[in-house]
Design a protein that fits this description.
Chain lengths: 119, 110
């Protein structure tokens, strides 16, 4: 079964750091671009970061310079290092697989992990 | 980038058809045939329903269809069923390996 399982969420103080993990199974992880997408409670989805199969990384302005996406293909794992966290970063964070052949859509999603930034 | 614009809510009766619009700009929706749609039930992860404007992933009902004209994409659900009640999000590739989502539309099946 194709599956993504996130972990690492929790409560962190403003200005703090947190590292999220996403374990992939059921597919050849190294062959797919991967993403993080977040959703604040009661709000819409927001694309947070992407990493290509070659390790190239991409971010929107809202997290650039604070968040770092990485992958470890040998462990079928995706990571998101979040630094200088703000209250506005409070959300459920999903990892998602980008579908094949440049379709630029997210075809597999994890169940999400909650990040709360509060003092 | 600014979020794509979707209606906050739509509703329809069982068996009817509804359409959800998603308006972007010439930099995202208007430039790429890379619009996708996601269904999200409360407390669940989003599910891909449409990709590349009008293609359905395996397993998605053919009651779901997508289209695009200019800077506006649309999702149509025909033969509305109770299980279709959910939030729906559009998403567009916006160039330079960036993506933008819509604000979401709550579908109520009356």
């Amino acid at each position: 079964e194709v599956q993504l399982v996130e972990s690492g969420g929790g409560l962190v103080q403003p200005g703090g750091s947190l590292r999220l993990s996403c374990a992939a199974s059921g597919f050849t992880f190294s062959s797919y671009d991967m993403h993080w997408v977040r959703q604040a409670t009661g709000k819409g989805l927001e694309w947070v970061s992407a990493i290509g199969t070659a390790g190239d990384t991409y971010y929107p302005g809202s997290v650039k310079g604070r968040f770092t996406i990485s992958r470890e293909n040998a462990k079928n794992s995706l990571y998101l290092q979040m630094n200088s966290l703000r209250a506005g970063d409070t959300a459920v964070y999903y990892c998602a697989r980008e579908g094949p052949s440049g379709q630029a859509a997210f075809d597999i999603w994890g169940q999400g992990t909650m990040v709360t930034v509060s003092s | 980038q600014s979020a794509l614009t979707q209606p906050a809510s739509v509703s329809g009766s069982p068996g009817q058809s509804i359409t959800i619009s998603c308006t972007g700009t010439s930099s995202d929706v208007g430039s790429y045939n890379l619009v996708s749609w996601y269904q999200q039930h409360p407390g669940k992860a989003p599910k891909l329903m449409i990709y590349e404007v009008s293609k359905r992933p395996s397993g998605v009902s053919n009651r779901f269809s997508g289209s695009k004209s200019g800077n506006t994409a649309s999702l149509t659900i025909s033969g509305l069923q109770a299980e279709d009640e959910a939030d729906y999000y559009c998403c567009s590739y916006a160039g330079s390996r960036s993506w933008v989502f819509g604000g979401g539309t709550k579908l109520t099946v009356l």
